[in-house]
Design a protein that fits this description.
The complex is a heterodimer. Chain A has strands at 4-5, 10-14, 19-25, 32-38, 45-51, 56-59, 62-67, 72-77, 86-93, 104-105, 109-114. By secondary structure, chain A is mostly beta strands. Chain B is an all-beta fold. Chain B has no helices and 11 strands. In chain B, the strands form 2 sheets. In chain B, strands 2, 4, 5, 6, 9, 10 and 11 form a 7-stranded mixed sheet that branches. In chain B, strands 1-3-8-7 form a 4-stranded antiparallel sheet, with no helix packed on it. The chains are: A mainly beta, B mainly beta. Chains A and B meet through β4, β5 and β9 of A and β4, β5, β9 and β10 of B.
């Protein structure tokens, strides 16, 4: 059973426009969410995260929105740049008692930013 | 330069052979993890360790083994019992109590 779902395998946008990547989750115990960016044959790079006590977190061109009632989060990239072309993974975890627990990943969305 | 080093970058396994993937970190992180990525799939957790000499199975531990004798090292052995070992293997680490994990560059394992 897939607990973190990224239903769009791919997304293509024009340079300078907004990219919106979506993620849905089913486990209501998840309380911390992360986005990672991955280039081919490399490890994922942490982008931005959000705790369930917030509904928005912003870092430069990247903003993550969390809608707990809908169990949905999204990553907005504005403006999109060709260097943003990569696979984006959504991940979730249960922050239990301050101990590290596993991240549950979605299958990823391939973002292509066209010049 | 702090980071996570995985070696080798490419590895080939013969039938019936055990192979060991190396993961070393100099970030002074307590927790370390091993993930497997298959084409079109997300990352799936194999094993994790929150402290030296202790580790737990993840979602797909069958056919794999690990050790954590030193804080900075968390090698993964792919045993002959793993019938479908071809995948991209990723090692990660994190500070205990913080959910953000940092990843190495990965090892691609193929079967000859």
């Amino acid at each position: 059973d897939q607990q973190v779902k990224q239903n769009s395998p791919s997304l293509s946008v024009q340079e300078g426009r907004i990219s919106i990547l979506n993620c849905d989750y089913t486990n209501s115990m998840f309380d911390y969410f992360l986005w990672y960016k991955k280039y081919p044959a490399e490890g994922p790079t942490f982008l931005i995260s959000i705790s369930s006590i917030k509904d928005k977190n912003e870092d430069g061109r990247f903003t993550v929105f969390l809608n707990k009632s809908a169990k949905h989060l999204s990553l907005h990239i504005v403006p999109s740049q060709p260097g943003d072309s990569a696979v984006y993974f959504c991940a979730a975890s249960v922050n239990s008692g301050g101990s590290n627990y596993k991240l549950t990943f979605g299958k990823g969305t391939l973002l292509t930013v066209n010049p | 330069d702090g980071g996570i080093t995985q070696s080798p970058k490419y590895l080939f396994r013969k039938e019936g052979q055990n192979v060991t993937l190396s993961c070393e970190q100099n970030l002074n992180h307590d927790a370390m993890y091993w993930y497997r990525q298959d084409p079109g799939q997300g990352l799936r957790l194999i094993y994790y360790s929150q402290i030296v000499n202790d580790f737990q199975k993840g979602d797909i531990a069958e056919g794999y083994s690990v050790s954590r004798e030193k804080k900075e090292s968390f090698p993964l052995t792919v045993t002959s019992a793993q019938k479908n070992p071809t995948a991209f293997y990723l090692c990660a680490s994190s500070i205990r109590g913080i959910n953000i994990q940092y990843f190495g560059a990965g090892t691609r394992l193929s079967v000859l």
